[in-house]
Amino acid sequence: MNFSWMAWTLPTALFFITIFALLIGMAVWEYFSPGGNPRVGILRFETTRGDRLFISLLGSAFIHLAWLGLVGPNLWWALALSVIYAIGVFKTV
Amino acid sequence: MEKTWNNKAWFLVLPVLVLVAFSAVIPLMTVVNYSVQDTFGNNEFFWAGTDWFSEMLASDRFWNALLRNLIFSLVILAIEIPLGILIALNMPKKGLGVPVCLVLMALPLLIPWNVVGTIWQIFGRVDIGLLGHTLEAVGIDYNYVQSPTAAWITIIVMDVWHWTSLVVLLCYAGLVSIPDAYYQAAKIDGASRWSVFRYIQLPKMNRVLLIAVLLRFMDSFMIYTEPFVVTGGGPGNSTTFLSIDLVKMAVGQFDLGPAAAMSIIYFLIILLLSWVFYTVMTSGDAAK
Amino acid sequence: MSHKTTGEKLSFLVPTLYIIFLLLPIYWLVNMSFKENAEITGSFSLWPMNPTLRNYMVIFTDPSWYNGYINSIIYVCLNTVISVAAALPAAYAFSRYRFLGDKHLFFWLLTNRMAPPAVFALPFFQLYSAFGLIDTHIAVAIAHCLFNVPLAVWILEGFMSGVPKEIDETAYIDGYSFPRFFVKIFMPLIASGIGVAAFFCFMFSWVELLLARTLTTTAAKPISAIMTRTVSASGMDWGVLAAAGVLTIIPGALVIYFVRNYIAKGFALGRV
Predict the structure, then answer these.
(1) From the list B37, B57, B272, which residue is nearest A9 (CB)?
(2) Helix/strand/coil (H/E/C) assignment for every residue in B157-181
(3) Better pLDDT: C271 or C208
(4) Which secondary-structure segment (H or E) carries A43?
(5) Which residues of chain B have pLDDT under 70?
(6) Residue among C101, C123, C130 minimizing CB distance to A30
(7) Which CATH number belongs to the domain containing residue B117 in this structure?
(8) Do the domain assignments include residue B119?
(9) Which parts of the chain span the membrane according to its record (chain C) (predicted)?
(10) Mean pLDDT across the stretch C201-212?
(11) Shortest Cα–Cα distance, A78 to chain B (Å)
(12) B39 in helix, strand or coil?
């Protein structure tokens, strides 16, 4: 079986490893403290920490796209912004 | 219903997980890989970084296709959902009419999508189609090959023809699950037709409407086969929706990188919108 | 319901008009399929002036045409069986238990219905090539699971949640093992739900073209793909095109006809 057509690169591999690590981390966290800490945040509906992770990741994707479209190709700033955004989401949503 | 906490339930979900992950995760990863590289075939790839994303975000072509697609989705939702509810409310509740209506209404849903396109392509043609011929005979200037307006109307009418039945079937299922006692109570209270609809029928249809809106939105947002067969994206680019543009790019021009970048942006938008729909409608459900 | 208002009396008009609107284009296709090409392009008539079966004969005498129907039916049936069989236990898990990440898993399943098939076509082709599955019926059947399994899980979960949990508990107390309980007691209770789920799987697999066309070359090519190829070959053979279209409607119409009472009852019982 030949999988060279998947055209892996180091950055994309790191990207997916990070995502999977996050998912596994969330699963372990959930296992030791089940229920996902549900609460109603500023979006006025109940979220668990899984939802907050999802909102963070999806939001980060859009932050990166917006940065590319509006500012320029230097994405480290977008990444920093995403981290701040994710912290904000975990604190307040 | 109160559910028990049991992680062994994972074993029951496992077959589904494997089956869907095989067809979903590997291709998605591949698309991500393509989106940061350039290729000329032969499995040779060159690093391109985020160039394709920048190119896509700066191109009018992408934004125009997106805008056209959004307008299309909103228009068909605005037509199909109310129309579907209206028809479901007026469906016979018992007797021979029920199976006859269900069978006839489900018919368009079971026609392969390119055949739907073919049917309307023929139906709308001025020379050999009933619709086109009739419209021309009455003196209306209608030609979907040349006029963008006519092309749009044809595609919207075709989608309404094709998919309203799904909304009808789902709403009808929600309606027949309402016990007769509710209607009798409403009658005793002297409730108007509107308040019966607003306070009895609509809440009961909540869940099926969620399904209907989600399905219709997603499917209309990635519509490909039917408009491709009818208009091929034309005249000009007036009916080039996202998927049509995508296939033009990926297969027609073999621009895998830009096409992959576009499909990721496209997927993210759909993911966001569907998540919003899902959250809004399920949290409304939970609040009751 | 002894006093019917005028509004209620006229209510049958809405579905009737709608059904007429649905049937007109189909009628036109059927009409064309019985005409000669010369009649289709040369004159304009509401019914065939010289009815002919030539268009259907072309299809029924040419294996490259009728094999397309056989291929389509094989992979659609395979897909329906696989989708429903995999979805049954999963839907049971979602309707009865809470477990690690259940809600997100459910949403993830649904997102697979949203993935635009257009760009997945190429990775799909390569993925199935890597497993040597190109041009087999099972490849298309598995590919269609991508959107049918989530849908089946969703529909079945709705039906299962309508079955009281006490039934499960009583059965376990009576000494039923899980598989025996599931097959002997639970599945008959949600039979109509299974019918509805199978119907939807059949429907979406039957109508899908893009993936089916991508994953097949000759031996498993679906009829709808054969239509697109043959038509563009030598000008426009409108008559044969119409006849082929009519024939693709028939299996769907048969399926709905056979399950009509079942579907009505199934829709009525479940929350869907």
Answers:
(1) B37
(2) HHHHHHHHHHHHHHHHHHHHCCCHH
(3) C208
(4) none
(5) 1-2, 41-42, 281, 283-288
(6) C101
(7) 1.10.3720.10
(8) yes
(9) 12-30, 73-94, 106-125, 137-160, 181-207, 238-259
(10) 87
(11) 13
(12) strand
